[in-house]
Amino acid sequence: MNIDELKQAWNEDDALGETPEISIEQRDEINLPLEKIRKNMRMEFWSTVGVFIFAFGLILVCEAPFKFKFYISILIASMVFVTFFFFSKFFGLYKDMSNTAMKTYDGLLDLLHQLDLNKQYYLSFYVAFAPFLVCELIIVLEFIPRPVPLSDLQIALTTIITLLATLFVLFLFGRWWFEKLYGRYIKQVENLVEQLKK
Question: What percent of the chain has pLDDT above 70?
Fold first, then answer.
């Protein structure tokens, strides 16, 4: 085998190993749902910041015993910490979606994997609020004055029933909210990737 045959064999191997590029039209078609996902992520981030600012403001102006306000403030500060952790994960995806180097089919497959992973993070985010819900129930049951105090059995039943019902509703709401903000756009990207595969 001479040097020219080696070069030709080398070039053929390189051609086989290349990942096919995505055309500009296909990239534009994929960027539309990705931009909608990014827009919804920005909206969700700023609305969450607004909710926490409103919650802290409400604590400042409400007239309640110091212990009640202090416990609720600690609870909300802990919720901010957990929210920050999950939003840092979402921010990584946000940055990856704006990467203009997504020119290959493999790059899109990696993005779909990240979108699926972030769906799991998203649902985990809602479930992570279970301990905060328990604490809120305890604080409310302990500090809200009642004309007739609740018995131990009433406190236990109220806590368990409220917790189970609220967690179920929270999980369903999280799934619905994800589908509304992100799910349909992720399906669009998946369909486009399937078309590219053919």
Answer: 81
Which residues partner with 104 through β-bridges? 21
The pLDDT of 131-151, averaged and rounded, is 83
Give the list of residues 6+ apart from residue 166 with CB closer than 8 angstroms, or none.
Answer: 133
Phi-psi region of 63 (alpha: psi -120 to 50; beta: other; left: phi over 0): beta
Domain boundaries, the chain: 24-197
* Residue that wins the pLDDT comparison between 50 and 163: 50
Q: Closest by alpha carbon to 183, among 110, 123, 104? A: 123
Residue whose token pair is 């609740």: 150
CB 52 within 8 A of CB 76: yes
Q: Which pTM value belongs to this model?
A: 0.72
Sign of the torsion formed by the C-alpha atoms of 64, 67, 71 and 76: positive
